Amino acid sequence: MEVRDRYDAPYENESLRKFLAAEPDDLPWMQDWLAMIRDATAAGRRFARVRVVSMPLTDYSRFGVWCAQFTNGAGEDIRYLTRDRAQAAGLPDHDYWLFDSRTLARMHFDDGDRFLGAEIIEDAAEIVQHNYWRDAAWHGAVRRDDFATEHHLGRR
Questions:
Q1: To which H or E segment does residue 98 belong?
Q2: Burial 142-156 (b: 16+ CB within 10 A, else e)
Q3: In DSSP terms, which residues pair with 142 in a beta bridge?
């Protein structure tokens, strides 16, 4: 689950600039990730995430919706949930990843939106709680293509 409206990922900066200027981009920084997703999903692994977004969307979130068409095309299932619905459902305000519903990695960021690292959580009750949140978020989330259509995001 990703809940931030912006991430300071230096490798994305040029692609974000091109996106906002409606310039073509082959997303070179994303190609290894897409290849890994294709290989892993071909081997039967599942990749899915929910992105919680504020409305109206930030420029970065619009860029993320645009990029998600490529990761979804590679086999990942990215869905969107508006922040008001996430708050109404009592979902957390921190990013985390679950691996096979057993390993929890809680992401940490500084005040400038820079990724500081992941903390592996081993507490069983906390892992169960995050699985519950994942399922609740998934239940209320909208498929990327439906979200893009509903919010008139098109291909760019």
A1: strand 96-99
A2: bebeebbeebebeee
A3: 80
Tell me the per-residue pLDDT of 78-125, one tens digit each, with 9 for 90 and over: 999 999 999 999 999 999 999 999 999 999 999 999 999 999 999 999
Q: Report how far residue 134's alpha carbon sits from residue 91's, in angstroms, rounded to the nearest whole number.
A: 9
**Tokens read off for 1:** 């689950």
pTM beyond 0.85:
yes
Cα–Cα distance between 50 and 99 in angstroms, integer?
Answer: 14
Distance between CA atoms of residues 94 and 56, nearest Å:
20
Distance CA(133)–CA(89), nearest Å, equals: 9
Mean of per-residue pLDDT scores for the chain: 95
As given in the structure block, the two tokens for residue 88 are 């109404």
* Per-position DSSP letters for 63-92, written without gaps between them: HHHHHHHHHHHHT-EEEEEEHHHHHHTT--
Report, in angstroms and rounded to the nearest whole number, the Rg of the chain calculated over CA atoms: 16
Distance between CA atoms of residues 110 and 115, nearest Å: 7
